[in-house]
Design brief:
204 residues, alpha+beta, NADH Oxidase, globular
Length: 204
């Protein structure tokens, strides 16, 4: 598939067919993910892969309990056969930039204009989503509820020096009658509203 087609076809899929996902496709998505840029080539990311029904169920128990789905969104998302939890490591970046070629030996987080550890994990996540489209699959990026963070960490054994930045569901898209997602209800902002050439100008 042409790259532009992959980008244009990418959307958040919220319901999946029960068809299993080929493990080789998941491996390709992860191999592409680690080609994402990372500040100082710190590569402070990790990915927890849940690709069996038992493991996927563990995640949902940690986030929602053992009860039935409470809304249409959750009911659909729980059909995903694969979940990937991308995590970022602040310490990997702080330590990398304390090395001789960078020299920030004070390890002061204030030196960072933005938390690049989260940004780099997010870019890696986008590559997973784009790979899914290229492989004929669907995907969705969603967050771990704040109140479930501790339970997810404990259930999946995520160490304290890594933070889950979200969750990626993967699978074969199913029809979603009556629910086409936000793009069906909201217009896509045109480029002349969001691109400011030469500086920020009101109206373009």
């Amino acid at each position: 598939m042409e790259f532009t087609d992959v980008v244009r076809r990418r959307r958040m899929v919220r319901r999946y067919e029960p068809t299993p996902v080929d493990p080789a496709v998941v491996d390709r998505a992860l191999a592409n993910a680690v080609r994402a840029p990372s500040a100082g080539f710190s590569q402070g990311w990790a990915f927890v892969v849940l690709d069996t029904p038992a493991d996927v169920a563990r995640f949902w128990r940690a986030t929602t309990g053992s009860g039935a789905p409470t809304n249409r969104w959750l009911e659909g998302m729980m059909t995903a056969p694969v979940l990937i939890v991308p995590c970022s490591s602040r310490s990997a970046y702080v330590e990398r930039y304390a090395e001789p070629d960078k020299g920030w030996t004070d390890r002061d987080e204030a030196r960072w204009s933005m938390p690049f550890w989260h940004m780099d994990a997010a870019m890696a996540s986008l590559l997973v989503l784009l790979t899914a489209v290229d492989e004929g699959l669907g995907g969705c990026f969603f967050g771990v509820p704040p109140e479930a963070d501790a339970a997810v960490r404990a259930e999946l054994g995520i160490p304290a020096d890594h933070d889950p930045v979200g969750v990626i569901s993967l699978g074969h898209p199913a029809a979603e009658p009556g629910s086409a997602g936000s793009p069906a209800r909201r217009r896509r902002r045109p480029l002349d509203e969001v691109v400011h050439r030469g500086g920020w100008r009101v109206g373009g």
